Amino acid sequence: MAQDERAEESGDYARELARFAADLTTLRIEQGNPSLTDISRRAPGSRSLSPSAISEALGGRRLPGIDFLMALVKTLLLLGEHRPPAEDDPRLDRWRQRWRELQRLKTDERRSRLAAPPAATPASEQDPLRCFVAMPGESMGAAAWDDIPAIRKQLLEPVARAIGVLIGRDVKLILEKEKTRPGVIHSSMFGEARDAELYIADLTGANPNVYLELGVRWATRDNVTIVICQDLDEVKFNPRVVRVIPYSRDAVEESIQRIAEAAADGLENAEHVDSPVRHAAPAVTLSRAELDSMRQERADMTAELARLREQLAEDLLEAAHSTTSSRRKVLLLELAVDRNPASWQAHYELGSIFRREGRHHEAVQALRFATELRPGHAPAWRELGTALGKIPGSAQEATVAFERALELDDRDAETWATQGGLLRRMARSRTSGTLDQELLDRALTCYRRAAELSPNNLYPLMNEARIMLLLAGLRRTGTAAIRDRLGQLEHLARFAAYNDSADPWVAFDLADTLILTGRSEEGLAELRRAAALCPAEERTATLKTVAEPMNDLLAVAEVLDPEVAAAVRAAVETCKNLAFLD
Predict the structure, then answer these.
(1) Structural domain for 21, as ranges
(2) Cα 286 to Cα 278: distance, rounded to the nearest angstrom
(3) How many Å apart are CA 200 and CA 312, to the nearest integer?
C-alpha cells in the first residue's frame, strides 16, 4: 500500500473519530450538559464510568470500548429523560453502528502501519513508553524455544517496535536481569509491576517468581497486562482464566502481530480492566503523588466553595437590606443561612427579626448560632438576652447573655436599657400578683445608666419614669414630681415624633406621656396611630410589649390620680383590642 493511501486512511479515521466525539458532546449538551462527576455517579452499577475516561471519550482522544460507549450513551439519555432507554431503542443502534464503523477504520489503520517498514515509525516528543517483561532469567524449562537472548531479539524487540508504530510513540523494553543499578531486586521488580504502563508476563517454564510478579501486577494495576506462553497447557493456576497469547519460533511473525495488537488495544482503551483481581472491584490504585494532588485539589475546591458560599450569602444579605418587606427579608436571610451556615451576620439579622416578631424560640436558635460563630459581637449577645427574657424560665440565661454583652461593650446604652427591661419583667414574675421592689430598683439603675450614655434617647428616659411611678405607688410616696418629669418628656417625645413620624416606638412613648399625665382621649388616639405604624407581622408582639408596663401600673392604681388610672385601664384594653389579644 502506498504511503499517501495510508495517510488518507489515517486521516479518515481521525476525522470520523473527531465527528464521533463532537456528536457525543452534542448529546451531552442536549441532555442538560451534566458534569463529568454527575455522569460518573449515575452510571449503571454493572459498568463504571470514570470522569477521566468520559473526558477522553468526549474529547475524541481515543475510541472507547463498545461496552463503555453504550453505558455512557445510556447514562446520558437517563440523565436527560429520567428513565433508562429500552435495549431496542433505535438511538442505541445508531451509536453501535457508528462504533463498528470507527473500529473498522482503526483496524485498517493498524494493519497498514504494521505493513510499513521499520523506518516509518513515527517520531514522538513524548517520553518512551515503559514496557516491562517478566520472564525467567536463566532457564525456560523444557520449552521448545529456550534461547532467552534470541527470544528477546527475535520476539520482544520486534513487539516493542510494532507497538510503537501502532500507538505512535517510542517503546522502551525493560527486563529485570538487564538492570545494573544496585539495590534490593524485589523493590525493583514489584515497582515495575506497579508502575509500568505496559507489562508482559512470559509464563513459559512455570517460573514461580514470574507468577508472583504477575500476581503483584494484577493486584495493583487495572491494565495493561499481556500474558504470553509457548505452551498453553503449561499455564498453571489462576492465569488460565485470562486470554494467554501463545508464541513460538516457527510462527514468530504472527506472534509479534498478536502481542502488539493486544497491547495497542489495551493502551488505547484505558478504561478497560484486564486484571482478574481488579475487574469489577470498587477500588482503584493511585500513587502517593496523585493522592496528595487530589487531597490538595479537594482542599482548594473546599476553600473555593466556602468562598463562593460566603459571597452568595453576602449578596443575599445585601438583597435583604434593600427590601422593605419583612417577609421577603426573612426569606432572603433564611436562604443566606442555608447557602452559608457560617454567616454569623445572617443568623444575627434573622434572629433579630424573629425577636421583633415575637417568634422568640426561633430567635434564640438563630442568635445562639450568631454568638457561637462571632462570640465577640456584643449586639448578638444583647439580642439573645432580649429573646431569652421573653421565654418563661429563661431569665437566668438571659441575664448571662446581657452580662456577656456588657463585658464586651459596657458603653452600649441599648444593652443597659434591654437589661433593665429584663429585670422589670423578672420583678413582676417572681411572685404572681406582686412586684419585687429590689429588682425594680436594679432595673431603674440600668435605665439610668442607659440614659447617661444616650441623654436624648427617649426609650430609657421613659422607662426610668415608668419605674419611678411604679416604685412611688409601691412605697406610697407622692407622684407629682414624676408627673412633671413626664410633662418634660412629652416635649422630647413630640420633637422625636416630628423628626421620625414613621417610628412606632416614638409614637408609643408620646402616647405614654399623655396617658400617664391623665389625658386619656389624646393619648389613646396617639396609641392607635402608633399601632398603625407597626409592620403587620410585628404588631401583636409589639402591642403586648407596650401593654405589659401598663398592666404593672394597675397594681398600684389606687395611689395614682383617678384620671391617670382610668387612662391606663383604657390603654391596656385598647392594646388588647388592637392586637386581638384575649
Answers:
(1) 3-116
(2) 14
(3) 54
Q: Would you say 210 and 134 are in contact if contact means Cβ atoms under 8 Å apart?
A: yes
Q: Which of 239, 254, 280 is the last residue of a domain?
A: 280
Number of Cβ within a 10 Å radius of residue 460: 25
Q: What is the pLDDT of residue 82?
A: 66
- Per-position b or e across 89-105, b if 16+ CB within 10 A of its CB: eeebeebeebbeebeeb
How far is Cα 327 from Cα 74, in angstroms, rounded to an integer?
A: 45
Q: Report yes or no: 81 and 35 within 8 Å, Cβ to Cβ.
A: no
Q: Which of 146, 137, 132, 159 is nearest to 230 (CA)?
A: 146
Q: State pLDDT tens for residues 211-262.
A: 999 999 988 888 899 999 998 888 888 787 788 999 998 889 999 999 999 9
Nearest Cα neighbor of 415 from 391, 381, 374, 389 is: 381
Q: 488 vs 313, which has greater pLDDT?
A: 488
- Shared domain check, 353 and 204: no
Would you say residue 447 lies in a domain?
A: no
Confidence check: pLDDT of 507 > 80? yes
What is the pTM (predicted TM-score) of this model?
Answer: 0.49
> What Cα–Cα distance (Å) separates residue 243 from each residue in 131, 214, 271, 318, 397?
19, 14, 18, 66, 75
Instruction: Judge if 342 and 331 occupy the same domain.
Output: yes
Domain identity same for 130 and 254: yes
Residue 394 grid coordinates:
429563661
Q: How many domains does the chain have?
A: 4
SS3 per-residue string spanning 212-277 = HHHHHHHHHCCCCEEEEECCHHHCCCHHHHCCCEECCCCCHHHHHHHHHHHHHHHHHCCCCCCCCC
Task: Give the integer Cα–Cα distance in Å for 353 and 333.
Answer: 10
89 and 103 co-located in one domain: yes
Q: Is residue 107 located within the same domain as residue 127?
A: no
